[in-house]
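tool_log.txt
---
The assistant was asked to compare two proteins side by side. It first ran the structure predictor on the initial sequence, then on the second. Raw inputs and outputs are pasted verbatim so the downstream comparison step can read them without reformatting.
(1)
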Amino acid sequence: MSYVFENVNVDQIEEKIKLRERASTDGKNNLPRASSETFSICENEAIITVDELRHNQISRAINFLASIKNKIIDSTAELGQKHFFIDNLKNRIEETLNSARGRLSNLKDSYSTQDKDIRNFKLENNLDREPNTLTPNKILIGICIVVILFIVETYLNGNLLAGSLSKGQKGGLAYSSAIAGLNVLVSFAIGYFVLKTFHHVDQTKRIFSKFGLMIYLIFIGYLNWMLGAFRSVFKSTGKTASERFETTSSKTEAVDKVLSPSTVIDPIFPWTVHLDPMSLILVFIGLSFALISLVDGYYFDDTYPGYGRVGKQRSHDKEEINRIRENLLREVTLIIKEEINKTGDKRSLILQETLRKKWINSITDLENTFEGYRRFADQIDDALDHTIGEYRTTNSMFRTEDAPQYWRDEKGKVKTRYYNLRETKKDPQHVFKDYALLYLNKEEIEKKIEFYQNKIQEEANNFINDINLYNSDINKRVDEMRIKYNVQ
C-alpha cells in the first residue's frame, strides 16, 4: 500500500493565522501600502503554515519510501540477473558418471580376475560348464526345505512314537527331533560335503566319498528301521522301552538275545521284528526325508565341490556390473527430469514472489506515493490561493486607499489567481530526489512487467533446450559406458 497524504483543511489554516481578524485590521490601517510589492505578514504566515504542513507530510512519505527502496533495488537486481545455470547440472551428471565409471572399472577388473580363476578351475577339474552359484533365493529355498522337513518329521514321528515312550507326547517329540536331526540335518550335510565329491577329478576323493556315503546310508537305514521296529514291538506287547528293560530276567537272558537274535524279538535287531503298517510309514517317512535332504544338500550350491564358491564372487561382480549399467541411464534421466521440474518451479517462484509480490507491489507503492503527492501539492496550491484570496477580499472591504501594487497583474487589473506553488515544490521527482531514479509511471510499469516476464520465460525455455541438448550427449556417453563394461 502507498503512503496516504492528509487532506488540506483550509478552515484550519485560516483559523490558525486568524485570517479574517488580521485582514480587517490590516484593511482599516490600509496595510499593505498601495506601493507595496511583497506579500503581507499575514499572507506570508499562511504560506509558512501550509509549507510546514507540506514538509511534515514529505518527511512521513520519505520514511515510508525508505522502507520500500531496498525492496525495489533488490528485486530489480534479482530480476535482471541470470537465474538458470547448466553448469550445476553438468557437475551433478559428471559426478554420477565418474562414480559409476570408477565402480564399473573396479568391478570389471575383479570380474576378469575371477573369470581367470574359473577357467583355471575348469582346466584343473576337467569341467566345460559355468558354475552354478548360490543366490539369495537358492539359499532361502534350500534352508526352507531343511527347516520344513525337520519340523514335519519331528511332528509326525512324535505322534507315532508317543505311545511307545514313558513320557508320552513330550518323549515322542524329544526322540523324534533327535532322529529328524539325523535324517534331515546330517543328510543335508552329507549331500553337500560327500555326495558332491562323486564327481571330483581326484579318484581317491571319489572312492572315499562313495565309501562314506555307503556307511551313512547303512547307518540311516538301520536307524529308521530300528525306530519302526521299536514302535511295532510296543504295539504288539503294550510295553514301553523302560518297561521292557525292567522285565528282562537277567544279564544271561540279554546275552542269549545277542547270541541268538533269531529266537527273540528285539527292536535293536529290527530284522527280528515284524513291522506293522504304521511302523512301515514311520520308516518310510524317515528314509524319504533323509533322501530329500540328501538331494537338497547335493543341489545346494554347485554339484561339483568348490566350484560354486569359486564362481560366487564373479557372479556377484557380474550382477553388480549389470545393476549399475541398467540403473545408470535411469539415474541420469532422473537427475535431468528433476532439474527440468526445478526449472519450472523456480520460474514460477521468481514470477510470483520476486516480480509480483516484491517488485510490482513496491514499484506500484512508489508510483502511487508520487501521484498522491501531486494531488496533495495541488490541494496545497489551491488552499493557499483560497486563503490569500480571502485575505485580500476581506482587506479590500475595509481599505480607504488603493489596492497594493502586487495585487494587480502587468495590465493593472486585479489578479484572479492569487498564488501559484512553485513547480519544484509540486513535482515529486524533485521533492523526492533520492527515489526519482526508481520511479516509473503506470505505462512504464506495464512495459517493465512484460519485459521481465518475457525475459524469465525465455531464459527458462533456453535453459530447458540446453538441458535437452546436453541430455542427448549424455545418453551417447552412457551407451558407450554400457557397451564398454558389458560382461554378458
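(2)
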Amino acid sequence: MLSLTILNPQKVKILLKRLQSQFGLEDTKLFSKYIFVKNNKKKVFITTRTEKKDKFHIPRLEKVGVYFATINKDETLRLSLEGSQFIGKYATKNILELDHSQAENWLKGFDFDISVDSDGYYLLKYKDDFLGCGLIRKNKLYNFLPKTRRLKVLYD
C-alpha cells in the first residue's frame, strides 16, 4: 500500500535546491502557496494548501494533486510533463530546444541521438511549449513520456 508524506520545510528546501542546481530555477517564491507530498515510490506530487484540508483525511489515499517529479536513486529530479510545464518558464539552464522532427519523435515516444555538452536531465522545449523532461546519456535522449500520453499522429 502506498503512503503519502507531506514534505517538511527542510525537505522542501532540499527539493528546491535540486531544482535550482538542475534547471537554474531562481524564483522559488512561486512554490510558497503549494505543498509537496511524496509517496513511498519516491514520486512527488504538488497540491494547494486547501486540498490538504479537503482530502488528507481519506484513508488509503494513493496520490493527491498533480504528479510533479520522481526522486532518482542519485537524488536528481526527473520532472513529469506537468512539472516541466510548471517550472519551464522559470528555468534558466538545461533547456533543450527541439526542432519539429525531434519534437515529433519525442511525442511519439522514441529515443533518439542528440548532441549536447553534458549528460543529465533536460527540459525539452518546442517553440513556446515544454514537452517534458528527458535524460541524455552519451548523446542519446531517453524518453520517459508514458505510453498513454504518446501521440500516434502529429498534426502540423
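---
observation on (2): Strands lie at 4-6, 34-39, 43-48, 66-71, 77-79, 95-97, 112-113, 120-126, 129-137, 140-142. DSSP finds four helices and ten strands in the chain.
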